[in-house]
Design goal:
Blueprint lengths: L3 E4 L1 H10 L4 E7 L8 H10 L2 E5 L1 H7 L8 E5 L7 H10 L6 E6 L4 H14 L3 E5 L8 H7 L8 E4 L2 H10 L3 E5 L5 E2 L9 E6 L7 H5 L3 E4 L11 H19 L1
Parallel strand pairs: 2-3, 5-6, 5-10, 6-7, 8-10, 8-11, 9-11
Antiparallel strand pairs: 1-4, 2-4
Helix pairs in contact: 1-2, 5-6, 5-9
Amino acid sequence: MSSTRIFGLHAVSILLKRNPARVRRLVLQKGSRNTRLQPLLERAAELGIAVADEERQTLDRLCDGGRHQGVVAECEPLRALGENGLDRLLESSDEAAPLLLILDGVTDPHNLGACLRTADAAGVLAVIAPRDKSAPLNATAAKVACGAAEVVPYVQVTNLARTLKLLQQRGIWITGTAGEAEQSLYQVDLTGPQALVMGAEGKGMRRLTREHCDQLVNIPMAGEVSSLNVSVATGVCLFEIVRQRQLRD
C-alpha cells in the first residue's frame, strides 16, 4: 500500500485540520511530548489516529533527514487533480475574477512547495502544471508548502496548450512571464480573470506555451542578476496582481 510522509509541526497541524482522513498514524520523537505537540496529540485522540513514539534516528530516516521538529505523519498520498478536477473547480467557484497559477516545466519539489505556499497567500484558485516534466506533489513539496498543499488544488494536465485554450474560452486572460517581454509587470492590467504562467528557471516557458499566452510581461531587474528563482518571481507577480485588485476594489 503506497504512502507518503508529512513532517513538521505546521504541516502536520494543517493536515490534521484540513484533511485528517489521509492520516494513518503519527510518529513522535521519544521525549518530545511537550506543549508544542499537545494540540496535535489532542486532535489525534479526537480522530482515533494511532500515535507511536520512536527514536530521533527513526524520524530522520522516515523524512530522509528533513527537519521534522519531532513529528511525522504517515498518510495516504496527496493526489494531483486532472482536467476534470479543474473543470469542477472552475464551475463551482464563485469568484468573479479567478486567479490561477500555471507552472511550465518547474521540476524542483522545493520550488513547487514554495509556489503553493505563495499561491495560498495570494488567493489562487488552483496551481496547474503539465503531467510530464513537472515536480511531484511529494513530502518535500508538502513540507516547504507549510500546509498549503492541503488547501490549494494542484492540477496536472496532459496537454497544457489545450488547457490554456479552454481557460481562454472561459474568459480567463493568460499572462506569461518572459525576460524579453516588452511590457513590464507593472504596466499591464491584471485585475480581470487571470492565469499567470511561470516558466522553468533558465529555459523559461516552452515555445508552445508562450504562443498561447494573451500577453507577456517581464519583472524589471535593476542589478546584475538576470533572473529570479521561480518561486521568488512567482511571489512578485502574484502580489502585484493582489495589489492591483485591492486598488480596484
